[in-house]
Design a protein that fits this description.
The complex is a heterodimer of chains A (500) and B (130). Chain A is mainly α and 500 residues long. Chain A is built from 20 helices and two strands. Chain A has a two-stranded antiparallel sheet. Chain B is α/β, with parallel strands linked by helices. In chain B, strands 3-2-1-4-5 form a five-stranded parallel β-sheet, sandwiched between helices. In chain B, helix 3 runs parallel beside helix 5. Classes of the chains: A mainly alpha (500), B alpha/beta (130).
Chain lengths: 500, 130
């Protein structure tokens, strides 16, 4: 009941004109970037980090969460009307959604996506309220060795589970860790500063995030701008008939059940649960023949899943300070910018901030429904903006933001260098997420590693700690050895089952 | 000699197409339908889709006018493309659809119609949507 009281207090703080306005601003920007392919919430939050400096932590984080949730809504509009996913989490939506639109059922597809997102977002945010405090309670009891283990698990999970290639994942993680150690370490030694005085304080996370996300993406688009325009399928007001409701509500709930836990574990993300939800709906549907031709279940389930996973992501982010996707990583950078230490103590030390933030999620979700349901066709008009204008604007904003952080020209060179790095990573298929997680978590993993060693007087067994870390290290081993386990254990077993 | 018509999938474009067919019959010349897009936006409502082009072809066939339909997407403005075709080929008349524009809209986005009217070497027939 204490949490309920806190949440109500949070609502009290959100329902001020200023905070409501900021929430509206956040969800509007979020929907816009969600609609536009190639521009995601992570890039947007990175671009707005310098702006957030002047806003105060509560306002800034309300805005960022609005952008995060909004991106999940907007992505579906593009998937359905243009057959180009606006976000990676809406890839699956395009399969059935665009088919529905082509069959003249775009209005229903948009409606089930928006209402499903709202239902899933609300349920999942409620789950966040229920789940986060017990996680915090447990996490507070953990010591440095356990934290080190959790962070190592996060590294391994984002690197080895997501993405096509482990080698590329680890390469990307290594790049992130290297960028993360630049500067003066905890003993006062300079690392990788190459005698450049500006590097002594380390590279500002804003510059890294803006460079990798915004600059890198803009250069990448500029390098191969395809001369190709699609057709936006015209649509009126989104609406659903009785039959559509009947076919949608179960997929919404199942999608939520898939999305939330996957968002909450490291390396879950939104892509896997949306895909799982699609497969499940296909299996359970009474209208199997419609799949592949525009089945409403195939839109309802995945859209619910991606919104639920967005809420799930906030559990480890707020309770442990652990980012499980790129947007959460950049948001954690914002916390650090404001001098707020993310981690289990956040709920205690910044109780008002956290509960205001959670309350703002409910408000933001409602605003998004209002903003998206009647206005989906209007959002689709954003797709008519010529990309060169869009990316020129992004580069301008990125440079301004990077310069504004410390007002030194050096940061602009750094921005360009990191932009080229981001471009190179896209060119060679290196995932971005491990890099950004490495930068954000690397220094903190180091801190906990050092603390653990200090506590044990330099003995290596101090790094292991109690049973919690044993469990986590076992999980890491399983993740790392999974391909071998798959080959030598699972496959022979399956073979025996078939032959026996 | 050819009659060039700048086509867009809208009432404006249809009006231009009909005017061009009328002129073609009157002058006994073939029609060249041109539809262009810079192709740098995710969606361009002025880019004719497959179905639009089929309908255009059907109308031209029904009218019994010799014709050619060209779609260009090379990252250049409509006016540039049409002026270039006029200079390279034997075009006797350009038919375009025009609509009212606000001064601010014209200032920001420019006007393809104005560019074409002023730059092509041959006469231009400007029609409004019926």
């Amino acid at each position: 009941m204490e949490n309920l009281g806190n949440l109500l207090d949070g609502f009290g703080h959100v329902l001020t004109p200023m905070n409501l306005l900021i929430a509206l601003l956040g969800v509007t920007i979020g929907t816009a970037v969600g609609v536009l392919p190639g521009i995601g919430p992570a890039m947007t939050v990175a671009l707005l980090l310098p702006v957030a400096y002047g806003m105060g932590p509560t306002s800034a984080l309300i805005m960022f969460c609005g952008i995060f949730y909004g991106g999940m809504y907007g992505g579906s509009t593009t998937s359905i009307l243009l057959n180009t996913p606006g976000e990676s989490s809406s890839v699956v939506t395009a399969i059935e959604g665009n088919k529905m639109a082509k069959a003249g059922r775009a209005a229903q597809a948009l409606a089930t996506a928006a209402i499903g997102s709202f239902v899933a977002g609300t349920i999942a945010t409620l789950l966040l309220v229920l789940v986060a405090p017990p996680v915090v309670k447990f996490a507070v009891s953990l010591g440095s060795p356990e934290y080190l283990a959790v962070m190592l698990l996060a590294f391994v999970a984002v690197t080895a589970v997501l993405g096509a290639s482990r080698v590329r994942g680890f390469a990307s993680l290594l790049l992130g860790l290297i960028i993360g150690v630049i500067g003066v370490d905890q003993t006062g030694q300079q690392r990788l500063t190459f005698g450049i005085p500006q590097l002594i304080d380390g590279i500002d996370v804003v510059v890294v995030a803006v460079g990798i996300f915004a600059m890198g993406e803009a250069l990448w688009i500029a390098a191969h701008l395809r001369r190709k325009s699609g057709e936006v399928i015209p649509v009126g007001q989104p609406w659903m008939g009785r039959e559509d409701w009947k076919r949608s509500w179960k997929p919404w709930l199942r999608g939520t059940a898939f999305g939330f836990p996957f968002g909450a574990v490291p390396a879950g993300g939104a892509e896997i649960p949306t895909f799982l939800s699609y497969i499940t709906e296909k299996k359970l549907s009474k209208h199997k023949a419609e799949f592949g031709k525009g089945a409403i279940e195939g839109v309802a389930g995945p859209e619910a899943a991606n919104n639920a996973s967005a809420a799930g992501t906030l559990v480890p982010m707020l309770a442990l300070g652990l980012p499980t996707n790129a947007t959460a990583a950049v948001m954690l950078a914002a916390f650090e910018q404001f001098g707020i230490q993310p981690g289990p103590l956040l709920f205690e030390q910044e109780s008002t901030l956290v509960w205001t933030l959670i309350a703002s999620l409910f408000i933001g979700n409602l605003l998004l429904l209002v903003l998206n349901l009647p206005l989906a066709p209007a959002w689709a008009r954003l797709l008519r903006i010529p990309r060169p204008y869009l990316y020129a604007g992004i580069i301008f904003f990125a440079s301004m933001g990077a310069y504004a952080v410390n007002a030194q020209p050096f940061d602009l060179f750094l921005l360009l260098a990191l932009g080229l790095l981001g471009f190179g990573m896209r060119r060679f298929g290196l995932p971005i997420l491990p890099l950004i997680v490495g930068i954000i978590l690397g220094p903190r993993a180091e801190l906990h590693g050092r603390r653990a060693l200090q506590l044990s007087g330099g003995e290596l067994h101090g790094l292991i700690g109690g049973w919690v870390s044993w469990v986590i290290y076992a999980a890491i081993a399983v993740v790392l050895l999974w391909p071998l386990i798959g080959r030598f254990v699972v496959r022979p077993l399956r073979g025996r089952l078939v032959t026996g | 000699m050819t009659i060039l018509v700048g086509y867009v999938p809208s009432p404006l474009g249809e009006a231009a197409l009909h005017a061009a067919i009328e002129q073609a019959r009157f002058r006994n010349e073939p029609v060249l339908v041109v539809n262009t897009s810079r192709g740098d936006a995710y969606a361009d409502p002025r880019l004719a889709q497959e179905a639009d082009l089929e309908r255009v072809t059907r109308e031209l066939v029904a009218a019994g006018v010799p014709h050619d339909v060209r779609q260009l997407m090379r990252g250049r403005d409509t006016a540039e493309e049409i002026v270039e075709i006029c200079e390279a080929e034997d075009v006797s008349l350009v038919v375009i659809g025009i609509r009212h524009r606000t001064p601010v809209g014209k200032l920001i986005m420019g006007s393809s119609a104005q560019e074409i009217l002023l730059r092509v070497p041959c006469p231009v027939l400007a029609v409004k949507a019926g």
